[in-house]
Amino acid sequence: MAKNSLSKQEPLLIMNKLKKFFPLKRNSFFDKNQIYVRAVEDVNLRIIKGETFGLVGESGCGKSTLGRVILQLYPPTSGSAVYYGSRVEDMDLNYIVKEIEKLPKYQEHAIKCYQKSVKYDEELVSLKKEIDAIEKSKEMPDKNYEKKQKRVEKLAYLSREQKKEASRQLREGSRTVGSLILEENIEQIRDLLLKATVLFGHNSVIFSGLEGKYSDKYSEEVKSLFEKVRGFKGQKTLAITERTLDPKYQAKLEKNRETGINLTRLDDEEMRNLRRKLQIIFQDPYSSLDSRMTVGQIIGEAVVEHGMYKKGSKELETYILETMSKCGLDGYMLHRFPHQFSGGQRQRIGIARALALKPEFVVCDEAVSALDVSIQSQIINLLMELKEQEDLTYLFISHDLSVIKHISDRIGVMYLGNMVELGPSAEIYADPLHPYTKALLSAIPTTDEIKGTRIILEGDIPSNIFPPSGCKFRTRCPLATDKCAKVVPEYREINPGHFVACHYYEKTKDMK
Ligand SMILES: Nc1ncnc2c1ncn2[C@@H]1O[C@H](COP(=O)(O)OP(=O)(O)OP(=O)(O)O)[C@@H](O)[C@H]1O
């Protein structure tokens, strides 16, 4: 794998509309409606190389699920998680071939959406004519007239949505395939792949497709080319136009090229290869270690699996001892079993196990929650030291804002599966925009007299199977109005890098 060359401030991971729904068992065979626990819903998140991103929220809000879905420990229901620590060119060619194979699906879907939007437009045009006729006739507009006007609005909306979806599909296709193009060792196919695939990023494909103007000038050439790429069978229609040969257009596509790896697309084998770089430290230091293995075996197991050192070698032992020492574990502990250690020491073993793999990104899932307060700070200090030494990036999950406060560069607040606020730590503390964040903050014990009173949230956390309509927080929110029950608040950037999903965020500061 090529060495990662990301500098600070560049994203290491970008999550787009990540969703995880867990299906619940049906009550009976005849029960047709499958119901789901909506654990994580449409989360957009960038994790910046070198940062500690703190993720908070009450128990059950989906923090752990989000951490696991990012790492692909749970397959996501939909959405993407793109990792920039390795380049797509470093992946096995299978990944590339698979991506090419998916292209026609994007195109098909886009064409369907576009056709629907054309239908809506046709109906809209004829309705508008009828409306015009009514207006010109100087007759009193009746109920029908109003109905028609409403329908026109609805049609315009539907048509717009379908067009948007068509473009989204094409963009998605071009991003993934665009990313395949610059592989140097397949240079001979590079140009043609570029020509053949870039088109999926442009509306001209569907327009020309619908009008029957597909050019098959290059299709034979491209087909045989695809066949060369590991047995890919080739596609019947690949649209090529003059536009694709335009260097300016190619440069534009190159700029939009996705250089990262969409983890959600990898198969198990491909993910296994990347797993070393993406690690997790679990909450419970008691159950997360195999009680039948010695500390040395626990730390060394995955190191051997990933081929970093040979099993039983002197080098492996030296490496394990070095890692243990970094994590504050003495060498004599090498042959001992987990039950012979305290909670804090066990958590150090868990940390050593993850860090021995030289990861780049580590999810710390309630990594200190099970420990005594005095031990908590030792472990947090250790994690922070290791982060500097090893150039790590953390997603630090905790239900406790006071734990996250001092260590996070940025903080995300989750409620019932959604990210409701996200911003730089200092800003979240000084100027929380979401009423939920404000309530969580007010619950942190403090000696500071002026900090204000504790905001007590009414009621229990609602079900995430049938969450409240509109804003999911509204049933407990002191600021809620009728609008909150009807309209889902948009997740918006209010200050640079500070996002919130609340209709009334401006009133949060006056909340008592
Ligand atoms: N494997 C699973 N199958 C079904 N439902 C699940 C599964 N894992 C989590 N859930 C549900 O998804 C929701 C979110 O759980 P999650 O563990 O992610 O929350 P959390 O914020 O990390 O809370 P906690 O700190 O208590 O673990 C919960 O309602 C939980 O019951």
UniProtKB/TrEMBL annotation:
GO biological process: peptide transport; transmembrane transport
Annotated Pfam families: ABC_tran (PF00005), oligo_HPY (PF08352)
Domain ABC transporter: 24-441
Keywords on record: ATP-binding, Nucleotide-binding, Transport
Gene3D superfamilies referenced in this protein's UniProt entry, alphabetically: P-loop containing nucleotide triphosphate hydrolases
Single GO molecular function: ATP hydrolysis activity
PROSITE patterns named in the record: ABC_TRANSPORTER_1, ABC_TRANSPORTER_2
NCBIfam families per record: oligo_HPY
InterPro entries the record matches: AAA+_ATPase, ABC_transp_ATP-bind, ABC_transporter-like_ATP-bd, ABC_transporter-like_CS, Oligopep_ABC_C, P-loop_NTPase
Name by which UniProt lists this protein: ATP-binding cassette domain-containing protein
Source organism of this protein record: Peloplasma aerotolerans
SMART domains xref list: AAA
PANTHER family attached to this UniProt entry: ABC TRANSPORTER, ATP-BINDING PROTEIN (PTHR43776:SF8), TRANSPORT ATP-BINDING PROTEIN (PTHR43776)
